[in-house]
Write a structure and sequence with these properties.
Layout lengths: L8 H27 L3 H4 L2 H25 L6 H30 L13 E3 L2 E2 L3
Antiparallel strand pairs: 1-2
Helix pairs in contact: 1-3, 3-4
């Protein structure tokens, strides 16, 4: 049995708007994931869609259950916090691992590491 029938129309509209915004952001992130060519470009698109899309969906859930239960329901904030923190960190680690792998394989598409301060070329020191 669904409790959605107990939700007032004005609250259902607000929840629907938040859900559409969240789903739209997730869809934009997936289009970016499909459209962008390289792995390094692709790691940016899902971050935005996941972070902001999840935030909108969590807001819809909080609002819906706050209205239905006639009390503030905020435990969904933990879900939003964990997703917002872990998604960018995970994608950053994936990007660094891929960069390390591509540099160790000598891929021509990846820029070389910056030389250390005071070194122009290999074996040549700069006097400071």
């Amino acid at each position: 049995m669904s409790h959605a029938a107990d939700l007032p129309v004005w609250a259902a509209i607000v929840v629907a708007v938040f859900l559409l915004i969240g789903a739209g952001l997730a869809l934009i992130g997936s289009f970016g994931f499909y459209r962008l060519r390289s792995f390094y470009d692709r790691i940016h698109a899902p971050t935005l869609g996941t972070s902001w899309g999840t935030a909108a969906i969590v807001m819809a859930s909080m609002f819906c259950f706050t209205v239905l239960q006639s009390r503030p329901v905020i435990h969904e904030i933990l879900i939003g916090i964990f997703v917002t923190i872990t998604t960018p960190v995970t994608l950053m680690l994936l990007g660094r691992a891929a960069l390390y792998r591509d540099r160790s394989e000598g891929s021509p598409e990846v820029p070389a590491m910056d030389p250390a301060d005071g070194v122009l070329e290999e074996g040549v020191q700069v006097e400071e």
